[in-house]
Amino acid sequence: MSIYLNKDSKIIVQGITGGMGAKHTALMVDSGAQIVGGVNARKAGTTVTHKDHDGNDVELPVFATVAEAMAATGANVSVAFVPPAFTKDACIEAVDAEIRLLVVITEGVPVQDTAEVWSYLQGKKTRMIGPNCPGIITPGESLAGITPHTITGKGPVGLVSKSGTLTYQMMYELKDFGFSTAIGIGGDPIVGTTHIDALQAFQDDPDTEIIVMIGEIGGDAEERAAAYIKDNITKPVVGYVAGFTAPEGKTMGHAGAIVSGSAGTAAAKKEALEAVGVKVGKTPSETAALAREILNAR
Fold first, then answer.
1. 11-129 and 151-296 share one CATH topology?
2. 26 vs 16, 21, 50, 221, 267, CA distance in Å?
3. 3-state SS class at 260
């Protein structure tokens, strides 16, 4: 089992002919993900070719719209590598086409644009992950995004993270156990899928035995997740909050990581999570060690 993405997922790439789109399409094809085509209105009717893991050519058609791509290929997942200025339109196009899952990798999307997309999503059939995220990987089955697929294999750990690089580190730290799904939700102030969404999905997934949640300073997403865990999550949760050494009043890294007074600090988030039984490490390695203890005691 997995959440949101599995071996049967058929993936298209919005921006498949661009630099980042082409690079990561090649890596997704190599990972074994079922990439079935792409979208670029200016290059509709052409094809792009990448090699699979065995060195065989995989020819992918390019379509004018997401709706055309879905009709021709049966795609149910789109990964968007679209410049920030065009991301809002690309997202709305995918939502209008009723793609089941939209993974927005683009960094630097204006918060106003993301807010408009988020509002547009309400009541629609599409789940959006991102923007400004590494996407989602179900090891051994599928990859929609930029997460290196060689880090780890399948296993009982579910991972949800605001940070891309910390996603990769945690996957490496626990690679001997493996992951059901690892999802990078992005660190912007507004994202399509939250910690809470992923926590509930992992709670409902019978093959996820432990959840690792990585947050960071700024905002109150981790505090809200803590309240949700208290009332809804029965599986063990281990956490890490990036930014324990961050000075107050500074913007750190991700657009969402703004600390104001004691609100949004790593210490405040750690306290909120520990109050509901989440074990929180002060470093990624310490967090992995806490998860390892739980996994070894099964």
1. yes
2. 10, 9, 6, 34, 41
3. strand
104: its two tokens = 């927005």
254 is catalytic: yes
What CATH number labels 11-129?
Answer: 3.40.50.720
The domains of the chain are located at 11-129, 151-296
Q: How far apart are CA 148 and CA 158, in angstroms?
A: 16
pTM for this structure?
0.95
Q: In this predicted model, what pLDDT tens digit does every residue of 208-247 receive, in sequence order?
A: 999 999 999 888 899 999 999 999 999 999 999 988 777 7
The per-residue pLDDT for 265 is 85
* DSSP assignment letter at 258: B
Residues 118, 122: Cα–Cα separation, whole Å: 7
Structure tokens at 29: 């094809």
Set 24, 50, 149, 254: catalytic member: 254
Q: What is the mean pLDDT of residues 52-59?
A: 97
Architecture of domain 151-296: 3-Layer(aba) Sandwich (3.40)
Long-range contacts, stretch 118-123, CB < 8 angstroms, 24+ apart: 118/190, 118/192, 120/91, 120/92, 120/95, 121/95, 121/192
Using CA atoms, how far apart are residues 61 and 51, in angstroms rounded to an integer? 14
